Amino acid sequence: MMRTKFIMFSIMAACSLGSCESILEIDPISEITMANYWKSESDVKGYLNGLYSDYRGMTSTTLYGEDRGDAMVSGVIGGVSRSHQHELNEEYGLDWRTFYENIHHCNMIIKYAPGIDFTLENEKKRILAQAYTFRAKAYLTLTQMWGDVPIVLNPTESYDKESRPARNAASEVMTQILSDVRTAIDLFPETNILDKNRISRPAALCLKAEALAWKYTVQKSNDKNDLTDAISALEEVEKCGVSMMDKYADIFDVANKKNSEIIFSVYLKKDEYNNMYMSTLSMSAAAGLLTNDIVNKEDIPYTNSTIARHVYAPSPRLISLFSDKDNRASSAYINAINSKGAVVFTSQNKFRGTAYTDDRYYDNDIVVYRLGEVKLLKAELLCYLGGDNVQKAIDAMFSTRNRAGIGAYTGSMDQKVVQKEILDERGRELCFELKRWPDLMRAHHAGTIDIYSYIPNLVGKSTPLYFPILRKMIDLNPNLEQTDGY
Predict the structure, then answer these.
(1) Nearest residue to 97 via CA among 27, 34, 162
(2) Pseudo-torsion of CA 153, 158, 159, 162, nearest 10°?
(3) 428 assigned to some structural domain
(4) pTM value?
(5) Is 338 exposed, middle or buried (0-12, 13-18, 19+ CB in 10 A)?
(6) Which domain covers residue 390, as residue numbers?
(7) Cα 368 off chain centre by
(8) Could you tell me if residue 260 is inside a domain?
(9) What span, in angstroms and rounded, lies between the C-alpha atoms of 319 and 247?
């Protein structure tokens, strides 16, 4: 029965997400399709399962969280994105259709689930809460990447003027994000986490804090209430039953999925969705570099086939963040060393996947939120408050630093210096977890760094910090305006 629901989701997606003249390129759902769906509780649950599958595909990429940052350089095979090179224009812009497909499915649940009877009303509330959180998360990523974006709150079921929406101001998008998150938080019937592969109230609280941090720094709200509200949300998460793992590497071990530190992670399983995004920072034996001369070959998370593709490598900047005492370094990256002691290439070592009999598959769950990040975001927000809160920010960093073996921060108490140390600590702790570009954007707008002199691929360039939209999108929808600077 559940498989039938997955298939139905795919059929409805095919009906609704095909090519058309709408800017969102979403065809309306046919009346025949709708007449045979949204009849029962199982219909809603099946559609929600499809939404999680949809989100997994949308999330498993370095494009939005890492490509434009400083943690990666071109790998042995290369073929890096234009985003990584910061060489974008309206011909090589980014298509936001995937996000609006996801939002469309959220809108379907939000519209139709309330009218369906459930055996347990709390089950309906929980599903709606997840849909609202998914929608808020999609809009947060959209505004982080494009700035001003269209707000679409209804599913595309007929062609009308709403099919060709203009871009809303980023401030309006943030208002909608926070409204959706608050609705979700109120809807969740429990305060704890029932399943770490599902969105929960603590995950929605993490999203709330993440959004408020962006609002305060990048959108320049200058409202200290945004900081205190975000800190309160994070402190509530700290009390939800999660705890720090003793060993950093164990957080990401496939054998420890949904461990004590995880708040929300995206489920991956071999033969269902074989490889998460870290395959692009890993080496394939097919590239010809994993010879018998590599003395630590069996320590490297490589594949025999082209499952892995060394498009990117951990950057010198990232590697320089780790001191000799930092035990996270060996979990973040690994150098392939030949018999002469020379480094042949560098691979990620954080998401090693599983070595099966036929090959290695990168079947790690995709970590969206975990307690280590919560503590470091709290540190960042406390530091922005200034005064005595700077020491509280330093204290909030202690958990991750202590586990890493580098101990408490003992440097300057100057607010800007501590802000930079928190940015560096997030770089070490959260490397390759799709957080770096938003982190750098907040740091830039908070005055911690000048992003144009800090990111190597931005030095000497004036590339706007938001993505352009494709020319063809504007051709299809004359109500859209190009991102400033393109």
Answers:
(1) 27
(2) -20
(3) yes
(4) 0.93
(5) middle
(6) 368-458
(7) 6
(8) no
(9) 20
Q: How many structural domains are present in the chain?
A: 1
**Cβ count within 10 A of residue 66:** 24
Is 454 inside any structural domain? yes
pLDDT tens for each residue of the chain, 486 residues long = 444 444 445 444 434 433 344 445 554 444 445 657 999 999 999 999 999 999 999 999 999 999 999 999 999 998 999 999 999 998 888 899 999 999 999 999 999 999 999 999 999 999 999 999 999 999 999 999 999 999 999 998 765 656 789 999 999 999 999 999 999 999 999 999 999 999 999 999 999 999 999 999 999 999 999 999 999 999 999 999 999 999 999 999 999 999 999 999 999 999 988 789 999 999 999 999 999 999 999 999 999 999 999 999 999 999 999 999 999 999 999 999 999 999 999 999 999 999 999 999 999 999 999 999 999 999 999 999 999 999 999 999 999 999 999 999 999 999 999 999 999 999 999 999 999 999 999 999 999 999 999 999 999 999 999 999 999 899 999 999 999 999
Q: Do the Cβ atoms of 173 and 151 come closer than 8 Å?
A: yes
| Nearest-angstrom CA–CA distance, 330 and 240 | 30
Q: Which residues neighbour 473 within 8 Å (Cβ) at sequence distance 6 or greater?
A: 23, 93, 95, 480
AA letter at 164: R
Task: Note whether residue 434 is domain-resident.
Answer: yes
The token duo for 194 is 């029932």
